[in-house]
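Bug report (template v2)

What were you trying to do?
Predict the complex of my protein with flavin mononucleotide.

What happened?
Run completed; filing so the output is reviewed.

Input:
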Amino acid sequence: MKPIARIDYQVGPLDESGLAGSPLEQFRRWLEEADAAGIEEPNAMAMASVDERGQPHVRTLLCKEVTVDGFVFFTNYESDKARQIEANPQVGLCFHWQPAHRQVRVAGIATRIPQAESDEYFASRPRDAQLGAWSSPQSRVIPDRDYVRDRLGQVTEQFPDEVPRPPHWGGYLVRPSALEFWQGQPSRLHDRIRYIRRTDGGLDDPQAWMRERLAP
Ligand SMILES: Cc1cc2nc3c(=O)[nH]c(=O)nc-3n(C[C@H](O)[C@H](O)[C@H](O)COP(=O)(O)O)c2cc1C
């Protein structure tokens, strides 16, 4: 690999006095700042799950909602990630906003969201994305490139008007047990603030979280 330039992060610190009142507010603030800074798909996150042998697998997903309960993404319930989650719902998330030198890590439990909520989100998607959900047996081995295109042709004919949500497609909610906000700083003396769940309260409830600073 060719040498890659080292960057000394010259941005403001993450100070306890400057933190938002709750982890939800702090996350939304950083997400909005990343969006306002023009970062493309600031809701993209890495999601790690483990298989039955304990092997971790990581892939990028789009976080479609952040609520007091946690982080929501949508996928195929028959994909590898979904099979892993059904067997072991412990997952990790990681957002990285490179130009802002910021990272947010989440550890939590993933559960399916109610079907009505998946229906609602599916109905809001563009038609080609809806048809795509029907045509791709996500994570399965397929014979060639045409396989999914042929299926797309079939479902396009099958659903000339409204496209119903496939039963194998929907959302997961990741309910955090811990979150960490990381802010890059000069001389690698980065700031790390971790929130650990104390009670059953929401992400918007400061009393539900214990806060601590970690060494970089
Ligand atoms: C920027 C980006 C966003 C993505 N968003 C999603 C998503 O929201 N849902 C999804 O199922 N896959 C998404 N993918 C594809 C996944 O990374 C992955 O390839 C796919 O879900 C299959 O993963 P699995 O075989 O581990 O189940 C995205 C990929 C990229 C690069």
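What did the reviewer find?
The longest helix spans residues 23-36. Residues 16-123+167-213 form a domain with the Pnp Oxidase; Chain A fold (CATH 2.30.110.10).
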